[in-house]
Amino acid sequence: MSTEQEHPNTAFGWAARDSSGVFSPFKFSRRETGDKDVMFKVLYCGICHSDLHMAKNEWGTSNYPLVPGHEIVGVVTEVGSKVQKFNVGDKVGVGCMVGSCKSCESCSNNLENYCPKSILTYGSKYYDGTITYGGYSDIMVANEHFVVRIPDNLPLDGAAPLLCAGITTYSPLRYFGLDKPGMHVGVVGLGGLGHVAVKFAKAMGVKVTVISTSPNKKDEAIEHLCADSFLVSRNEDQMQAAMGTLDGIIDTVSALHPLLPLIGLLKSHGKLVMVGAPEKPLELPVFPLLVGRKIVAGSTIGGMKETQEMIDFASKHNITADIEVIPMDYVNTAMERLLKADVRYRFVIDIGNTLKSTL
């Protein structure tokens, strides 16, 4: 059966057809709105670096045709008969997950993101065996449990990236206790994740040092994002002077990079938390961990309860991502620019105004 007839609701989006990662218009279908489902018109969808990895099958898990997008926001058009949390007209979002087993230990602790059977928003198999399609599309249907409410004061376009970049950095700040006023936290990499990490940490009352390979990002970090200090990671004098000064570090870098200098920046009992996903293993020197009882940890997104909490926190502190809004037909150019890190700091596709069916 073709993807167009699989489900009753016709949908339209842009898909990658093979590992060239080139996107083109694509007709498919969405399931009907079940008892606990919410259907919404997609207005904006952020472009995450993982969309690029998946489009090119760089992690070896991609199914084609692939409709990416897991930073999806819009307005509810239909709700199932048993939906309790949402009404037609509500502003909502869907992040990286649309399903989980609901019975494992992680699920019962509101940590659906660590469920071994969690279902990703795109390129995953749904409960009914069909492939999930993401937000580079005109409509979305999701179980209400995996839908978040977007408060009225948050602009939808700037809020979209919070559903991935936001929760990815908010969750480890909270979980690892790096959210106490007066603490000193480092953020490695000033990209889509890093710039949001700085905003959240500052709103929590934490002192923030940005660590980057690019000296030209200093003004941006300190004047625009209000970081307290800036270290060029390749400058040995600067790194040496900052040794042993940080309570924790959020490392957002997805490329190969040395961990030893970062571990050196930590105080005793400090925590280096990895949220970027380098394709190759990094070298981990153990001795510096032993002599300071330091931790190297990882973290990925957050559960649904915490994702809503993060959005509400962002609303209270007026935190949004810094974005460049683009039309749907610019997506291939945007991917080329993303590869060169030529974006400040997140592309967001204006789905509502520019996704036009030409098929």
Briefly say what this structure is.
Helices cover 24% and strands 26% of the residues. The protein is built from twelve helices and 17 strands. Strands 3, 4, 5, 8, 9, 16 and 17 form a seven-stranded mixed sheet that branches. A six-stranded parallel sheet has the order 12-11-10-13-14-15.
Folded structure, characterized:
There is one protein chain. It is globular, with a radius of gyration of 20 Å. Helix content is 24%, strand content 26%. Strands 3, 4, 5, 8, 9, 16 and 17 form a seven-stranded mixed β-sheet that branches. The protein has a six-stranded parallel β-sheet with strand order 12-11-10-13-14-15. Strands 1-2 form a two-stranded antiparallel ribbon. It is an alpha/beta fold and 359 residues long. The mean pLDDT is 96. Strand 10, helix 5 (192-203) and strand 11 form a beta-alpha-beta unit. It contains twelve helices and 17 strands.
Question: What are the SSEs and their pairings?
Answer:
Blueprint: E1 9-16, E2 23-30, E3 37-46, H1 49-55, E4 72-79, E5 91-94, E6 97-99, H2 105-108, E7 119-120, E8 139-143, E9 148-149, H3 156-159, H4 165-175, E10 184-188, H5 192-203, E11 207-212, H6 218-224, E12 229-232, H7 236-241, E13 246-251, H8 260-265, E14 266-274, H9 287-290, E15 295-298, H10 304-316, E16 323-326, H11 331-339, E17 346-349, H12 351-354
Parallel strand pairs: 10-11, 10-13, 11-12, 13-14, 14-15, 16-17
Antiparallel strand pairs: 1-2, 3-4, 3-8, 3-17, 4-5, 5-9, 6-7
Helix pairs in contact: 4-5, 4-10
